[in-house]
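Have a close read of the entry that follows and walk me through the local backbone shapes. See right below:
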Amino acid sequence: MWKAALLFLGAAALCAATRSDDIAFKKHHLDPGAAESCAFADINGDGRPDIVSGDHWFEAPKWTRHKFRELPFQNNYIDDFSDLPLDVDSDGHIDLVTAHWFSRKVSWWKNPGKGKGVWKEGGVDTGMNTEFAFLVDMDGDGKAREILPQYGGKAITAWYEFKGGRWVRHQVAGQSHGHGIGAGDVNGDGRIDILTPKGWLEAPAPGVEGNWVHHPDWEFKEHLGFLYVHDVNGDGKTDIVSSNAHDYGLFWLERTPNGWKKQVFEDVWSQAHATALIDLNGDGRKDFISGKRFLAHDHDPGARDPLGLYWYETVPGPQGKGIYWARHIIDYGSMAGGGMQIPIADIDGDGDLDFAVAGKGGLYLFENLTRQPKAAK
């Protein structure tokens, strides 16, 4: 089992300390409408990443808005909790897989070609509240084309593949094991395991359906966001990075000879539902991007605190021992919240990474100004 530890100094980790903002971002407010999720995808096939959010897609480079579907708006939420770009039917056009909480389903929307007009909705699965989902390479073919959703309540754990013209459900467990989900090779056997707030599910050998072994190595009562498999401190051992989606805290689980040790590296803001693990500054080490979701739930701790977006740089500790997470403030005190997803893309072809967020304050694009963008043709 893991042990809780908030460290300020030490070999293992340091809690987040704010550093100078050495990456400048330009904020673009693309749409004021309330949203929850967004994604980058080349919808019209012109080679540029467009943005999808809610009922609309926004065409690069001027971010012209196109309505392509009608989603319900309920209890101050649009029923769009994850958007996953995927050419489902392999026709050369990027379609969209969407997770719906209130409609209790996962759907996919067929791109008619260049994104124009109304998209036709198809079903993936129904009957379960779906708070978020992501694409993952579950079959080991090197392509992240399978869907791993986070089902609410006492629903199942399952992943889905599009095969033979239909979506096939692969049930992993008879329960969801809590709020939060992730995927990665935990034990180093080359297979993709599934992570939950109550341990991890070991993938069976290739060709073996079912028989996923549950390892209750940790247990969180908190509602987590995504769980990432990543060697945080470079010791060659698998660690895990995650967040409290409806409370305070960003943390990682360090793999030690005595089990998993919880290391908190941020605890001053809450509702870190959306996260991204990526090398943002190009130094070869993965960084962590997150932000406070705008009114995720009515009574979450810190729900009325100011919104903020941050990235956390993994920096080697003194004498190269351990690491610490350096907090960089991207935006603070505006209406830009972290939402349900933080998609990453190089929107202008300049070689640095930009990102977008969508929340009840609208859709925002954060353009990385590290390098000069190429002139639009």
